[in-house]
Write a structure and sequence with these properties.
This protein is mainly α. The protein has two domains: 200 residues, Up-down Bundle (Growth Hormone, Chain: A), CATH 1.20.1250.20; 221 residues, MFS general substrate transporter like domains (Growth Hormone, Chain: A). Helices cover 77% and strands 0% of the residues. The longest helix has 30 residues.
Length: 421
């Protein structure tokens, strides 16, 4: 196989979907001005994105090997390309909902296909780990780029201007590039097609069998609460910057990139720290620090200077401090995913990944909807103070999750039992 073309295609796919998925906070801010939408109405965009990911994950778990990885990725790129073209052509709020529904469903196809394709193009575990890290790095680059790409199309002098939707022509072009590159790249899937019927155990039924296991159930609760916290902050930070800190829309979006950058740095540092300190200690400290940062930063949003904010140089201190919460919450999600996957036999990893995607999506939707409601009725500061409640719940979930994982590690029969054989 022409592996460099496959890898390049994977990088572009992940870069594109990182931009689209993480633009939801930017779009939530923009549709309020362009279409006259309230905060709670705009919050449904997160639901369209996440619930479509969850719904498609059920289908992916059972049928992805029958469809084929390459065909699944090509289908996802076609769907996204059409949806992106539809945004500037239709220019209505309902099209925005349709766009995020299409992006979510397509990402479920892309993520499972990409992860499976990696196994087809690498020679050993070392190369697998290296390629996975490069791909995740590209995802973070996509997230960071999203804020500046969208910011370049926004007119601060006219908040009602629909000109920002023209960014989707650029993203549609990127989808076409990724599609053509993948279409002309041969991928040998004969090995997975040959064993598709043997390895398919019915994703939905197996997910149900897995989720009733206590350690998995507590993991699901931890993942749900974590993503609820993360997405409630990430999706609403641009709106907070604009409506509470009174930053221009372009600057509001660009300064939200601090959250993505601090999250990337936090995960890098966690890779070093977790080698030396027990994961429960690290994660509990991280949650406590996150709560402390909320209590420290949000009061700074009061009594701001009436001086007009023109750029990064005279932005209020809270605009720099609060997004640093990404630095301390970043290690939580990868760490708990690693703990649960290492507790299960390898043939359960695919189904467990499906559960991770589904409950992460549900957590993201719940967090955004709750935050949007509080933001509209009680203000932006109250919306972010609310995050202290799920943070307290998350600490309790992590403690119970740790106890159950330690207990199961001491039972050699555990992996056989969860295998369902």
């Amino acid at each position: 196989m022409n592996n460099w073309k496959i890898k390049l295609s994977i990088f572009i796919n992940y870069f594109l979907f990182a931009i689209l998925l993480n633009s939801v906070g930017t779009v939530i801010l923009q549709v309020q001005g362009t279409y006259g939408i309230t905060e709670s109405s705009a919050a449904v965009l997160e639901a369209f994105k996440d619930l479509s990911i969850a719904a498609m994950s059920f289908l992916v778990a059972s049928y992805i090997t029958r469809i084929g990885y390459k065909k699944s990725m090509l289908l996802a790129l076609i769907i996204v390309m059409i949806a992106c073209m539809g945004m500037p052509l239709v220019n209505q709020f309902w099209m925005t909902k349709l766009l995020f529904g299409a992006v979510g469903a397509s990402f479920a196809l892309i993520k499972v296909s990409v992860y499976a394709t990696i196994g087809l193009v690498v020679k050993d575990k070392t190369e697998h780990i290296s390629l996975m890290n490069f791909i995740e790095s590209f995802f973070m680059i996509g997230i960071l780029s999203s804020y500046f790409i969208f910011g370049a199309f926004i007119d601060d002098t006219n908040p009602q201007s629909p000109a920002w939707v023209n960014v989707y022509y650029l993203l549609a072009g990127l989808a076409v590039l990724a599609f053509l590159l993948l279409l002309t790249t041969p991928i040998d899937e004969s090995s997975i097609q040959k064993t598709a019927n043997e390895t398919d155990n019915g994703g939905f039924a197996e997910m149900l069998r897995l989720v009733i296991i206590p350690v998995v159930l507590m993991f699901v609760a931890s993942a749900f609460i974590y993503v609820l916290i993360e997405q409630s902050i990430m999706s609403w930070l641009p709106t907070f910057n604009s409506k509470v800190l009174h930053l221009p829309n372009t600057l509001s979006i660009q300064m939200a990139s601090i959250l993505a950058a601090s999250t990337a740095l936090g995960r890098f540092l966690a890779g070093i720290v977790l080698k030396k300190i027990k994961w429960l200690t690290v994660l509990v400290v991280c949650v406590v620090l996150a709560g402390g940062l909320v209590l420290l930063a949000l009061p700074l949003a009061q009594n701001l200077s009436p001086e007009p904010i023109t750029g990064w140089g005279n932005a209020p201190l809270v605009a720099f401090i609060f997004p640093m919460i990404g630095l301390v919450i970043a290690p939580i999600y990868p760490a708990i995913n690693s703990v649960i996957l290492s507790s299960l036999p390898t043939h359960q990893h695919g189904v467990m990944s499906g559960l991770i995607v589904i409950f992460s999506a549900l957590g993201g939707t719940t967090g955004s909807l709750i935050t949007g409601y509080i933001f509209e009725h009680y203000g932006g500061q109250s919306a972010f103070y609310f995050s202290l409640i799920p943070m307290a719940i998350l600490i309790i979930c992590l403690i119970f999750f740790h106890k159950l994982s330690v207990k199961n590690d001491k039972q050699p029969s555990f992996q056989n039992n969860v295998g369902g054989h």
